[in-house]
């Protein structure tokens, strides 16, 4: 049922295909031309303003996340009817802010356009015509489609006219979005708004947490200390107070450089020219700071913004507007993991505490900027801690996560299946290669940086070898063959004379002879059997893998743990594909019968499992019995595999969301299950098992659930947060009750790649 979708995504077919057909489980046929259009109203590039950038980033994220069920189009607001922009095709309507009659005409045109299912307004004072943008009310009253609005500015202490305009706008939409909890408080208390209000944070790009060194080298900053501010330059930025703070700072840190990044706001430039920038330039000269303050006077791209922020040691937000409730520049800097100093405008008060930077006591105070800069620069450990805290604090703000939150609101008014699948992320092996040195794959990472102090494990190297085998079979890329050889050499390195495979090796390459475990040993047997079965791999490697496998089986005689038995069964199953023998079959049946016996001992009417508890990677036991059935065609094994898998599905799938058993307490029979922490390993294992179950039974619910389990990585989870980072190619180390683990270790990254590659086996 999902063939066309897989053929489309797995083959990386062009986005410009005329008709993209998705056969979706239980939802019929969806064509690109039939997609639900969400019309976004606001400014849009190439118009130069913050709302334009925000609207583009948001709509791009929604398109990526929800295609083909949704697609976004733009109604672009133009200034005074004289602005002419070369808009992209995504912009299907334009509206001059000052032409009041056009608001009615365009609203009626939207009403007649059946493809438009909803209108989403990005509101800022100054974008819409009339006093306080009151012409927008005409538009909202006329449009008969569902409407939601995002308020980018919510000013406290409104005068009577402003209050009435905001109330009228609010009464003519179905839901309101604000970016901070303070926004809800102001709208309810000071504007008496009754419409439902939801907090969705300002979106930020998904970037890796990195030190400043790489980008400082790129910009040739050398060892300079970089302070920066960015945004459209105008007198409300308060840059003069930062500049006046610098002479005493520069005395102590002469290598300091303050970057003021961004073009002058186009409306300011039109009305006042470069007066403010020239005033700043004179101040810089008067203070003798020509070598310590630099302007980048241009409208910068997102890529440039990220590069400048990544080179920054301290980001400074010096706004002179106490009522400012949204600052994209502030959260962008925090999202890059940078320390911040800010004046106490509303958004900064919500975002900054002593663990995330320094929130100043007031405005227009150079002395306070000086003291804050010196305080942070004097404590390198504190600076590092702030950087990590800010990166952690902002993970829920990444654009994919923000798109999910908007999708939840859209779904209230527009039909869209709860289960959705974006275009599958391209296979990205950057992080698994980063984590692998000449000896093996390193166990843990600090964010994305391999932590060699944690050493290596057989568990990770065995799993990584399976992934590398799949990658090489798919692409014949020599990089992956090299990875296979590295992981195979690791297994050889940890094998004892008796065939036992030890799990842990220190950073000094010392094998821990006390680290043998049944499960690690079994996991390696599975990996060796898999590599031996791959005809695409050079024969010399397969022969070496077979030799290690046969010796490892000698050390497996004492294995009793069900997960370890399962790995051994799967390993022999793979090996038997290319090395068929009755002995292999008998060995598989011997171990499988032990699993069936455990099932018969522990099952009852309510509990259909092999043990009196569910822990991690449970479904690999079911998978081993599916493998046994594939080898023997004995229905006994298939019956137990299906019964136990269905039981596990009933405990881990809720409302079309996969919820693995949590590590903090597991799930003991006749007790309540633990929901956290959830691990990527479980999602990958479920994808693997359901894929095999579907291949054997052709039951559509297994195919459907395999895709739901994979979507756990992409945000369909209890936190509605992305676990896989498509920029780094790494996967976060688990999902807690309130946040994700930001480290991207070996096991998690391998788990994601395992699941991603397994999906391609569905067709």
Give structural notes:
This protein is α/β, with parallel strands linked by helices and 763 residues long. The chain folds into four domains: 35-199, 3-Layer(aba) Sandwich (Rossmann fold), CATH 3.40.50; 213-393, Rossmann fold (3-Layer(aba) Sandwich), CATH 3.40.50.2000; 426-580, Glycosyltransferase; 595-763, Glycosyltransferase, CATH 1.50.10. Helix content is 46%, strand content 13%. It contains 28 helices and 24 strands. The strands form seven sheets. Strands 5-4-3-6-7-8-9 form a seven-stranded parallel beta sheet. Helix 24 (619-632) runs antiparallel to helix 25. The protein is globular. It starts with a helix and ends with a helix. The model is unreliable at 1-34 (pLDDT under 50).
End-to-end Cα distance:
10 Å
How many helical stretches?
Answer: 28
Shape: globular
Estimated radius of gyration: 29 Å
- CATH topology term of the largest domain: Rossmann fold
Instruction: Indicate the structural class.
Output: alpha/beta
Number of domains: 4
What is the average of the pLDDT values? 92
């Amino acid at each position: 049922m999902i063939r066309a979708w897989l053929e489309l995504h797995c083959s990386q077919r062009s986005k410009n295909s005329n008709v993209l057909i998705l056969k979706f489980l239980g939802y019929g046929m969806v064509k690109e031309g039939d997609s639900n259009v969400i019309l976004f109203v606001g400014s849009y590039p190439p118009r130069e303003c913050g709302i334009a950038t925000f609207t583009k980033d948001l709509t791009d994220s929604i398109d990526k996340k929800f295609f083909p069920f949704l697609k976004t189009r733009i109604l672009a607001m133009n200034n005074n009817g004289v602005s002419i922009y070369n808009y992209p095709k995504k912009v299907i309507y334009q509206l001059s802010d000052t032409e009041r009659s056009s608001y009615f005409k365009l609203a009626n045109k939207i009403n007649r356009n059946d493809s438009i299912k909803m209108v989403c307004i990005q509101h800022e004072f100054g974008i819409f015509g009339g006093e306080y943008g009151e012409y927008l009310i005409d538009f909202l009253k006329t449009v008969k489609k569902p409407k939601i609005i995002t308020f980018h500015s919510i000013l406290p202490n409104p005068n009577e006219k402003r209050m009435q305009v905001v109330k009228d706008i609010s009464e003519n939409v179905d839901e309101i979005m604000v970016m901070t909890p303070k926004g809800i408080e102001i709208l309810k208390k000071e504007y008496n708004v009754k419409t439902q209000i939801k907090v969705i944070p300002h979106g930020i790009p998904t970037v890796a947490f990195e030190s400043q060194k790489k980008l400082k080298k790129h910009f040739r900053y050398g060892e300079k200390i970089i302070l920066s501010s960015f945004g459209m330059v105008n007198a409300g930025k308060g840059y003069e107070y930062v500049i006046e703070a610098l002479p005493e700072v520069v005395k102590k840190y002469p290598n300091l450089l303050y970057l003021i990044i961004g073009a002058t706001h186009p409306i300011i430039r039109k009305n006042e020219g470069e007066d403010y920038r020239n005033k700043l330039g004179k101040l810089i000269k008067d203070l003798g700071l020509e070598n310590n303050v630099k302007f980048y006077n241009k409208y910068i791209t997102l890529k440039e913004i990220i590069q400048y922020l990544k080179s920054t040691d301290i980001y400074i937000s010096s706004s002179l507007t106490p009522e400012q409730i949204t600052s994209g520049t502030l959260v962008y800097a925090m999202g890059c993991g940078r320390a911040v100093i800010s004046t106490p405008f509303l958004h900064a008060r919500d975002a900054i505490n002593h663990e995330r930077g320094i929130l100043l006591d007031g405005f227009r105070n150079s002395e306070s900027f000086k003291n804050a800069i010196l305080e942070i620069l004097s404590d390198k450990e504190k600076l590092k801690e702030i950087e990590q805290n800010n990166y952690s604090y902002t993970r829920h703000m990444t654009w994919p996560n923000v798109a999910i939150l908007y999708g939840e609101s859209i779904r209230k008014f527009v039909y869209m299946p709860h289960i959705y699948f974006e275009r599958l992320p391209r296979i990205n092996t950057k992080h698994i290669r980063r984590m692998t040195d000449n000896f093996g794959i390193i166990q843990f990472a600090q964010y994305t940086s391999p932590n060699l102090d944690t050493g290596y494990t057989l568990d990770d190297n065995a799993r990584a070898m399976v992934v590398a085998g799949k990658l090489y079979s798919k692409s014949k890329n020599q990089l992956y063959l090299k990875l296979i050889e590295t992981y195979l050499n690791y297994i050889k390195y940890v094998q004892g004379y008796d065939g036992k495979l030890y799990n842990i090796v220190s950073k000094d390459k010392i094998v821990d002879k006390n680290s043998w475990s049944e499960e690690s040993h079994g996991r390696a047997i599975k990996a060796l059997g898999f590599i031996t079965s791959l005809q695409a791999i050079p024969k010399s490697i397969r022969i070496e893998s077979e030799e290690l496998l046969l010796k490892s089986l000698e050390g497996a005689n004492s294995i009793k743990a069900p997960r370890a038995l399962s790995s051994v069964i799967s390993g022999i199953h793979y090996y038997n594909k290319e090395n068929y023998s009755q002995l292999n079959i008998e060995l598989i049946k011997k171990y499988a019968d032990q699993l069936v016996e455990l099932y018969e001992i522990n099952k009852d009417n309510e509990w259909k499992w092999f043990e009196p508890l569910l822990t991690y990677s449970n479904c690999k036991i079911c998978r081993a019995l599916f493998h046994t059935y594939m080898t023997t065609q004995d229905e006994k094994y298939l019956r137990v595999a299906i019964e136990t898998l269905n039981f596990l599905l009933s405990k881990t799938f809720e409302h079309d969301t996969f919820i693995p058993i949590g590590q903090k307490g597991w799930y003991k029979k006749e007790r309540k299950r633990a929901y956290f922490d959830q691990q990527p390993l479980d999602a990958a294992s479920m994808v693997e098992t359901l894929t095999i179950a579907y291949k054997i039974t052709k039951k559509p619910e297994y195919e459907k659930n395999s895709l739901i389990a994979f979507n756990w990585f992409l945000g369909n989870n209890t936190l509605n947060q992305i676990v896989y980072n498509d920029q780094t190619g790494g996967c976060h180390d688990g999902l807690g009750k309130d946040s994700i683990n930001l480290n991207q270790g070996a096991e998690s990254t391998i788990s994601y790649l395992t699941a991603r590659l397994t999906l391609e086996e569905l067709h």
